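Deadline looming. Please check this record:
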Amino acid sequence: MVPFDHLEREIINGRRDARIGKIRLSFRDSFVVGSAGTKIAILRRRVNHRNPTISEARAMVIGVPREIHRQENRVGLSPFAVSQLTAEGHAVYVEKGAGVPAHFTDHDFEEAGAQIVYSPEEPYHRSDLVCRVSRPSTEELDLLKPGGTIIAFQHLAVIPKENVDRFMELESTLIGYEVVTDETGDFPVLNPFSEMAGQMAIPLATHYLQTTKGGRGILIGNVPGVPPSTVLIIGAGTVGFAAARSALGDGAHVLVVDDDMAQLRSLSRDLIGRPVTAVSTTERLARYSQIADVIVGAVLKPGRRTPHLITEEMVKNMKPGSVIIDVSVDQGGCVATTRPTTLDRPTFMQHGVVHYCVPNMTANVPRTASRVLTNAALPYVKALAKKGLEGALKDDPALAGAVYTFKGTMVDPGLGEHFGIPSTPLQGLL
């Protein structure tokens, strides 16, 4: 316990820092931050009129790096999220400029209680938990500190094995937003992003169907006297539902295929202007792809690489100038000719078909996407901050099921099998 009366006088007198021995203390709002090495202790002010003291309580230190990979314009925490975390006594370090592409200024973060740091290493090395949007890129691996915890959209099934090996050498704990699953089997963090991507898919297809973009020179919608275009949607989940709703609203002829009858039944029941639905088979995909003006890839295999349902031969048989929007590209894509593109070069032409295959397509609406991420992910970040890594994983099956590696040990059996790495059940490590 540290005597409080001296610090209380310093705070009242307007001082922003003071020293007790070798520890510098800075005052911010209702707590005091001590800088003693890389571990930061939050000293909460607890006033006792008989014996005023500060009691030392462990709190989480959270880092928010600036995302640099593939024109990633989103930010791992919004200022609102920062304000919620700092109000609970946690410290947040935000790299300078991290929120600028999403129109969140450094001042916005400081007003929310964050501290701005100026080197790319600091959000990692000064933090217990790093909140990102996307997994660290190959170029960023050298920034990571050993034993760190990173929560993000990881999509590890599509990265080189060397990167996975490096994470394990660093004894990293990797938690994937894309596989956080609630008690109903739903994906509370992934789903809002899937809905955004589905909403974006049809306007993008409309854009790339224009002649100047290499398309067929047709409208998605219905003009009197002219048949509407045909949109084939592969997958009846969240992306597929949102894309079908948008395409139907534009007046397109919509086909939705899936191998899950319950999904097809739900989509058909809930959509106004019901689309044509069918159980997915290779033969049907071959036939439907020939008449499609647009294909939207909306297949989800959580945490796994997406199978190629549209073969290269099917792409060759599509109409010249037709468009493929492969939303599944973040997990490898459901079209054989898919390869990842970027927001600055989003399309390529192959076999006369325009391919749009941007894994982080919602990074083009980064302010909305960052706020969506805050809404969906903040409860899990708060749980990690309040309970610590092991405490949160013990208490919350949704978080525990989203762990790929735990302190350098592979705990996801599917990912381990994919890379030929033995896995260990997480519960045996907690």
Summary: Residues 1-57 have pLDDT under 50 and may be disordered.
